[in-house]
Design brief:
5-stranded mixed sheet, 25% strand, 498 residues, 8-stranded antiparallel sheet, alpha+beta, Nucleotidyltransferase, domain 5
Length: 498
């Protein structure tokens, strides 16, 4: 199963509904702050009592720290509608804090300095939240339980003229008028096309709608809904698709076969991206770009390869001899956002996770002779190798070099040193921290395979992705490469020590 999150804006809020939401978020924030204050004096006890057998912390287990007495204390904050959500929210937050402390890195104690988003831990027509649908006008609404029984803001539920709302739930029953004052409010929703596609999936299969968060951003309120989807059919990649930034278009793609030969280069047209989607937020345009990339990758069964612009740049920006500047259409931050969108869309379409590679030299390295020099770039869009004379459009070069790097990496074997001794062979790989002496035996390679598998399993058990250490990251890269082949020895080259 895979998770998706869609963002829906609460639309046309009346003054009283806005007041109800503000008050609910204030109560939720105060209740959450109370739990944090209570936990502060018990950190040591919580650390010892709630860790699992591997010394890690999980939100569900930590939520049990909020026992019955603490739950009753939450009533002081009018938090009755949110008790289960507060427990899970606290558990997840505190688990993150304790896991960070465990790494030895500086971890500030969680604090609430502004309105905390309200977590709705279940999708239900009788508590937390639920969606409603107007079949005649094709409009969507949300029903939010935000008040307790004592609230003075409760109102009767009356049907609007000509409007009939149906629950997006198992039997799709119609929302009935109520003469009593209810604890919920009903608000219309506003959203874009791609969010609507998921809502329509919910109409036919409401079970995909899971937890949600209500947040305030500036003066508007948004509902972030988690959607659980079936795992798609896995696509076994047979080609590689490099996706780089471009000065002429939002992004440029190059398709290469498994041998590293270029099949086709494709620019993503800015006109095509913006057609019919003008005056919409930039994030939606990034989704349109990502959809084109994913569609092409699915069609060609491609492993997507992208630039890793987290730490180093690709030096695509260019200043001409006349002083004119040429900048990429996508900024570094927007390209990173595009990559994050491509990642989950790839997963949702059965593609493998996109591979991020260093951007250093992608627009300056000759794909023919391998020369990497700034002198290879003759203009903002022209590449000419100063040694072998290879000429290329810069966009074609950058995207192809991305694809080619991962092909070259995949074909390179991991070199393990072997030293022959009197009674056997000592195998060694320093960066992997691997050293094993295997006695002379007809199954010596089988024994080496077993030892390498043990090394992989030990590393995966102890590996902590939160630690940003270059050696650990390199080690992790080697481990992944060892696991690429069905037989671990197919990734290895034995080098004799004389």
């Amino acid at each position: 199963m895979i998770m998706r999150t869609i963002c829906l804006k609460l639309y046309k809020l009346s003054g009283i509904k806005r007041e109800i939401i503000e008050e609910a978020m204030t109560d939720y924030t105060n209740a959450f702050g109370y739990l944090l204050k209570e936990a502060y004096d018990e950190v040591k006890t919580i650390e010892e009592k709630y860790k699992d057998s591997f010394g890690r912390y999980k939100g569900v287990k930590l939520s049990k720290w909020v026992d019955s007495p603490k739950g009753k204390e939450l009533n002081r904050f009018n938090a009755e509608p949110f008790k289960d959500s507060l427990k899970l929210d606290f558990g997840a937050t505190f688990a993150g804090y304790l896991n960070l402390r465990k790494t030895g890195r500086e971890a500030g104690y969680p604090e609430e300095n502004s309105l905390r988003p309200i977590l709705f831990c279940r999708y239900s027509p009788i508590r937390d939240y639920c969606l409603l649908y107007d079949r005649d006008k094709d409009k969507y609404y949300v029903k939010l339980y935000l008040m307790n029984n004592k609230s003075k803001l409760k109102r009767e539920v009356k049907a609007s003229k000509g409007k009939r709302l149906y629950y997006i739930y198992k039997d799709g029953e119609e929302l009935k008028e109520s003469a009593k004052k209810e604890r919920f409010i009903i608000v219309p929703l506003s959203f874009g096309k791609w969010q609507e596609s998921y809502l329509k999936m919910g109409l036919s299969n409401p079970e995909i709608l899971k937890t949600a968060r209500l947040i305030k951003r500036e003066n508007d309120f948004y509902l972030y809904i988690n959607i659980k989807l079936d795992e798609p059919m896995k696509i076994e990649p047979s080609t590689f698709l490099g996706v780089c930034r471009s000065i002429k278009s939002p992004a440029h793609m190059s398709l290469a076969d498994s041998e590293g030969s270029l099949i086709k280069s494709i620019p993503i047209s800015l006109a095509e991206v913006t057609q019919n989607v003008k005056n919409i937020p930039n994030i939606n345009k990034l989704h349109v770009i990502a959809n084109q990339i994913i569609k092409y990758a699915v069609k060609n069964k491609s492993q997507i390869v992208v630039e890793n612009l987290a730490d180093k740049g690709d030096m695509l920006h260019w200043i001409g001899k006349n002083g004119k500047e040429y900048s990429p259409v996508l900024s570094t931050s927007n390209y990173r956002r595009l990559v994050s969108i491509i990642k989950y869309k790839a997963e949702g379409n059965g593609l493998p996770t996109p591979i991020q590679v260093s951007p250093v030299g992608v627009f300056y390295t000759c794909p023919q002779c391998g020369l990497n020099t700034k002198n290879n770039r003759f203009s903002h869009n022209m590449f000419l190798c100063t040694v072998c004379g290879k000429a290329s459009n810069l966009d074609d070069l950058g995207s192809f070099n991305l694809a080619h790097r991962i092909i070259k990496y995949n074909n390179e074997l991991i070199r393990i040193r072997a030293e022959v001794l009197d009674e056997g062979i000592k195998f060694e790989h320093k960066l992997l921290d691997f050293e094993s002496f295997i006695k002379n035996d007809p199954d010596i390679m089988r024994n080496l395979e077993i030892e390498l598998m043990k090394q992989v399993e030990t590393f995966e058990k102890d590996y902590n992705f939160r630690i940003k250490d270059k050696n650990i990251q390199q080690k992790f890269s080697i481990i992944k490469k060892l696991k690429m082949k069905s037989n671990i020895l197919d990734s290895v080259e034995i080098v004799s020590v004389i």
